[in-house]
Amino acid sequence: RIRSRIQKRIELKTKPNEEKRVALIIYSYPPGEGNLGGASYLDVFKSIKSLLKRMKDEGFSVYVPEGKLHDLFEDLAIANTGQWFCAEKIIKNSFYLSAEAYKNHFYSLPEKMQDEVTSAWGDVPGTVMTSGEKILIPGIELGNVFLGIQPARPPLKGQDLSGASHDKTKPPHHQYIAFYRWLETVWRADAIVHVGTHGLAEFTKGKEVGMSASCFPDLLMGDMPHFYFYHVTNTSEAVVAKRRLYATIISHNNPPFTSSDLYEDYVLLQNLIDEHGEAEVQNPESCSRIKERIMAVAQELHLEETDIDRIHDELYEMKRRIIPKGLHVLGEGYEKEDLKRFLEFVLRYDRGDIKSINRILAEENGLDYDSALMDRPSHASQLAEMDRRCTSIVECCLERSLDEAVEESALSSERRSELREALRYGIMLLESYSDNEVEIDNFICGLRGEFIEQGDGGDIIRSPEILPTGRNLTQFDPTRIPTENAFKRGEEIARNTLSEHLERNGCYPESIGTVLWGFETTKTGGETVGQILSYLGVRIERSRGTWSPKLYVVPLEALGRPRIDCLVNICGFFRDMFPNLIELLDQAFDLVAGLDEPLEFNYIRKHSMENLEHLKESGLDPKTKRKMANGRIFGPQAGEYGTRILPLIEDSVWRTEDELAEVFIQSVNHLYARDLHACKVDSLYRDNLARVKLVSQVRDSHDREIIDLDHYFEYFGGLSNAVRRTCGVRPQMLISDTTGEAIRTEDLKSSVNRGIRTRLLNPKWINGMLEHDHHGAQQIAKRVENALGLAATTHIVDNWIWASVAERYIFDDMTRERITENNRFAAAHLVERLIEAENRGYWKATDEEKEKLRVAYLKIEGEIEDDI
Q1: Which of 251, 608, 737, 772 can bridge 469 by disulfide, Cβ–Cβ 3.0-4.6 Å?
Q2: Largest Cα–Cα distance of the chain, in whole Å?
Q3: What pLDDT score was predicted for residue 87?
Q4: Is 367:386 a contact under the CB 8 Å cutoff?
Q5: Where would I find the H helices in 248-307?
Q6: Is pLDDT above 50 for 636?
Q7: What is the dihedral of CA 84, 85, 87, 91, to 10 degrees?
Q8: What angle do CA 425, 428, 429 make, to 5 degrees?
Q9: What's the pTM value of the predicted model, to 2 decimals?
Q10: Cα 83 from Cα 861, distance rounded (Å)
Q11: Which residues pair with 737 in a beta bridge?
């Protein structure tokens, strides 16, 4: 296999471009016309247009359509398992592989693979995307480019959708295998390119690493050279694509960032607070009247604070919140104004010895910056003024010169030197930014069989040194985790979390639930790992370098509190990327469980003894029982990556919240400990769940609020719901946001509400999304779906949110028309989600609201049916 793949790569060097045949693959997940071309922060269709134009310039035999690509798919009814398109038209316009040709291939596979497929999907040719003796291959041929849709993963016969997507215990179906076989042997692709994060081929059944001839990712990819455009923030899933699907990753950038700013009545509220501040000095007798007005507007906006300073602080946080502006297009750089904002955001943060501009300005004014960040309600006005000055300095630096920016800052000599250093760092960063041209340049290099250099991934504001994008995304050394800084931040998160619980409940929690993700661990350097070790009262010593970290137990006297137990849930990406951390954490739990300390000060030991009693009649040997009793790390079974909650929510096939909880438990009730890899221990997992009083999660990226990512409701919400299922009480839920200058730990509801206000309901965010045909409405509908997932698993999505979403997107005629024009299928899906929220009792809609929804859906549905 290696020899054949190398040979195919070498052929790319010698074969003329005009003769090369390239397959560009997009996704439709979940299946359906509205989700065609979905990806993470990428305008897929515009990006493909850019790729086609560049390929044509480079001498490839390519036809570049005049109109919009998604319209071409709709006109030809090209889809995989669509909902709206006419089946006869799909059959007529799709390519196909004959059942006879597929049989010849299928029966040449190892017998084990044949048996797995036929037992799950029936005999050849199966029932997925077939017509008689034809297996359909949906796609469009544009000269020597094939633009195809990756096959969907429908449920197995007799299986609900919870067992379909990302379930690697089941093999891909016949059409899935036929699709890639057709590309390689019938259409004869010289290279295959998956466009966007991410598809499902890399998650098909087989070993986690080191593919064999009996692993389906190896079978699907064959000998075709494989290139994969991937979001630069997501190294964890990119590593899976590299290891299991032999992908050369080409990273792509985020869309431009901007600040949320205030809008509509939030502007009115800010003006009233400013007026109140002036009245305190100039006209004190009017303060009570203005305060009444402030509280009335705050109540109308569903802000729960009743203190003016705290309301002001929330507005300050909203106003400066960093949000993405639309989607990225491959090869497109930031406009001049976007570069200014990007540099301003980057220079908000200290960079090693280089101070942030905000800190420099604070110190010039004699303000303790760290203290001000920790007590923002008392310093909101001062911090806002520093933001304004920072913006002015950056604009002067870019519009005129660095020297003039320093001169006009009117700082002292020492502060000017620090400012000059910060601005010089920013200018150097912008020079490395490179306008994203590398993304398409390296794509062409790959098609020529040339080398694509390595590049790290991460959040481009937290880690701007990862720029430029367009390089071969790789993971950094996992033995460095947790880094020294990440451990310190993890300690701070642990202190914040315990303080919140202590303040609310008057006691420490005996056990805390946490989630370890591969992408969060990579981007933060292991903040959650540091948090877990801190709960246990354990530190790391690296006197012999990164390869041999030693655990040091903090004495109880120095710790000053009990050792807190921790139930750790991992995803499959974390398991594959960081086996060393699983071993390290398991060693920490085992070490602390063995300490001779009072049970009231060592909850790990206390619970391990309870677990051991539970295992008393298990028939296991004493050594294994002790490993299981001390084990606290649980995750999916071997070969799986996620839970099965996502497809349940996506396809609305769940019935009760208890069903969701059971699906989560069955997905992650596998213990990971020394010499125990994914050992299913359901009752022991439930015992550990029942002890959890608080669940904690990190928000680590500027590109994703809680509402932006389905994994938050899948894991964080799923864990909370599972705790409720086992002990009858919902745990306290805290989010630690580590994207800002200071770590902010707060309840989940506050974090979600802010994300809703700054993005989903924000005209600035909405307009940015709707500038992208087809994909904008797609992204909006996905976030409403995420809100439904959070409602189902956490109960923190208030009634006003649903009413506001309906008012903003559906009841406002102009916005509804914009969304429908952008992507009518996604518009219909959005209304369906609102109706579902009402039907499931999460939204107490009025009769008028329900009737408006019904009328709007019938209108959108009618428009779709008229055009199909």
Answers
A1: 251
A2: 90
A3: 81
A4: no
A5: 265-282, 287-300
A6: yes
A7: -150
A8: 85
A9: 0.93
A10: 12
A11: 699, 744
Q: For residue 135, what are the CA distances in angstroms to 126, 595, 621?
A: 9, 62, 52
List, for residues 304-314, the tens digit of each pLDDT value.
989 999 999 99
**pLDDT at res. 833:** 96
C-alpha to C-alpha distances, 442 to 142, 708, 851, nearest whole angstrom: 22, 29, 53
Q: How far apart are CA 124 and CA 104, in angstroms?
A: 11
Each residue's pLDDT tens digit, 505-520: 999 999 999 999 988 9
Peptide bond into 774 cis (omega under 30): no
- Per-residue pLDDT, 722: 97
- Which range among 255-259, 572-576, 733-737 shows the weakest confidence by mean pLDDT? 572-576
Taking only the tens place, the pLDDT of each residue in 22-31 is: 999 999 987 7
Instruction: Indicate the pairing of strand 694-699 with strand 511-516.
Output: parallel
Which two tokens mark 350? Answer: 């200290």
Provide long-range contacts, Cβ within 8 A and 24+ apart, for 374-383. Answer: 374/742, 376/313, 376/316, 376/317, 377/307, 377/309, 377/310, 377/312, 377/313, 378/309, 380/309, 380/312, 380/313, 380/316, 381/277, 381/312, 383/316, 383/358
Domain ranges of the chain: 18-245, 261-320, 478-751, 762-867
pLDDT of residue 544: 66
Distance CA 191, CA 444 (A): 11
Q: Residue 165's pLDDT is what?
A: 40
The CA-atom distances, in angstroms, between 724 and each of 443, 655, 717, 775, 795 are 49, 17, 11, 36, 12
- For residue 594 the two structure tokens come to 């063995």
Residue 567 has φ and ψ, to the nearest 5°, of -95, 120
Angle at 289 between CA 283 and CA 293, to 5 degrees: 125
How far, in Å, CA of 120 to CA of 243, rounded? 26
